[in-house]
Amino acid sequence: MAQVETEQRKFDPILVEVIKNGLASVNEEMAIAVHRTGRSAMVKVGDFATVVCDRQGRVVGEGAAPFQSAIFMLTLENILKQFGDDFKPGDIVISNDPYTGMGHLPDVSIFAPVFWKGRRVAHTISYSHHMDIGGRFAGGFSSQPRSSYEEGLRIPIMKLYEAGVRNERVVDIIRANVRAPEEWLGDIEAKIAGARRGDQAIHAILDKYGVDAFDSTCDYLVDNAERAMRAAIRAIPPGVYVKEDLFEDEGYGGVGKLVPVRIKLTLDGETATVDFTGTAPQSQAAINLPLSSTLASVYSSIKCLVSPDVLTNVGIARAIKVIVPEGCLCNPQHPAAVGGRTALLFRVIDTVFRLIGEAVPGKVGIPGEGGDMLHYSTERPGGGHSSFADLYFGGWGGRPTKDGIDAVAPMTFGSYGSVPAEVLEREYPVVVEGFGLVTDTEGPGKFRGAMGMYKQWRFLAPGNVTIRTNRLTTASAGLHGGSPGALSLNVFKSANGTEREMDRQTIIHAHVEAGDAIYHRVAASGGYGDPATREPLLVLQDFEDGKLSAERAREVYKVAIDVASRAVDWKRTAALRTAM
What we know:
- The chain is an alpha+beta fold.
- The chain is 33% helix and 24% strand.
- The chain is built from 14 helices and 22 strands.
- The strands form five sheets. Strands 2-1-5-4-3-6-7 form a seven-stranded antiparallel beta sheet, sandwiched between helices. Strands 14-15-20-17-18 form a five-stranded antiparallel beta sheet, with helices on one face. Strands 8-9-10-11 form a four-stranded mixed beta sheet.
- The chain is globular, with a radius of gyration of 25 Å.
- The protein starts with a helix and ends with a helix.
């Protein structure tokens, strides 16, 4: 009894909360440093992340979205496995290797040890998506390469700085292999600036509270995540749930050549097992999903069962067993190409969410659609290369008690945004001719899904375009009587005025001349519940906001709107719903 009381006295919940929030501030300060010093449009839009890790390499200060935090787990494990204790103050490690933990080659991470009073006490990591990584296709996320060697420069885990001294030979190799190297290296320096700011901020915490309090807080945050995850699983009746999604693009534009992704969720006591046995073998095309991305998709999805206050760290993973056969689409073996893996990534997240929804009906909504991107690459008139990537999302699907949210990233991905038109038009030869929600595209439901979003770019110089999209033939389905959202759409608009719908592929390549334009619509998200039970005043509000036509209100939601008075015709609405 005395031993228990002693242990209870050692635990200071107020101090733990103070240090936890201090770590969150460290992450925020790191992120601000990266965002304000980054060179590329991608960093400006938010496709980067920073996290703080303890001496063991465990993510403890969550500055990234759940998916990004989870993807760092394997990366950090491999970095520490490779270097052990061979770290000195001023070391900076760089890697983009998808076979040691990163997502695909354009995602480049910077890792730095933190020393305090001569002792390694923590680590920081920051990553961002780079505009290019060399290789056959500008941008590095094409589905066309047949091996990793075609995709670009693969940087194994290695030291870019050693004891504060930069390895110029590594820099020379990078500069010789990527398009727009100065911008590329500028983003690297921005991430290093973030790491240095993190080092300073962690020192401030240690100076104030000491290393013992820091270490014990990190232990608590990991153990707390494990306890919370196990408790959430324990609260669900044991069961087995299986779902197979047919991914509709084998990587080379073969619409209708379906690729099965099979996932079985087993809930047994306080452990969740997610088994990918039965998923298609790895593809010759670059649509494969590296193991780190598969694990992160699972961890970040199941994490939705616990409070947002619980950090995404290795404690979550301890309660989840993931089985992914080697050589399958979600655990490819080198040299399989993985650059175009993002569309499959979002389908895995969607499938896991839907499995959870079966296990706990009425608790989980549809995670959302998007992650679409347009990459434009052109040669500058005076020499050199210019490129940008514009990323945006559709929004969340319907939820058990609320509509989906339009124009936001899925729940697992945090706060991304599209590059502002002013930034693109100032720095690149392009005009943004439109950006907004598309009427009558939402997934109908008692609680509707997010609408499709469109953006249109007109190019002022010849160049090459790569478009990443999703939902080519299989729409985001509704839940519990909800209906699907609209499919994605791409239209090529020539300078001469002709238009054509582009190929229905997850990755589309096209050449543009000056004056050509591309219209891209992100797929909409499915609805939740029977659309004919939606509150008529909510239908009217969507009509008022231009999100819904009167015809769709009548045909889909069984709500009659008097267009002249802009009001619900309650008598006709009652007749429509009675007639059902």
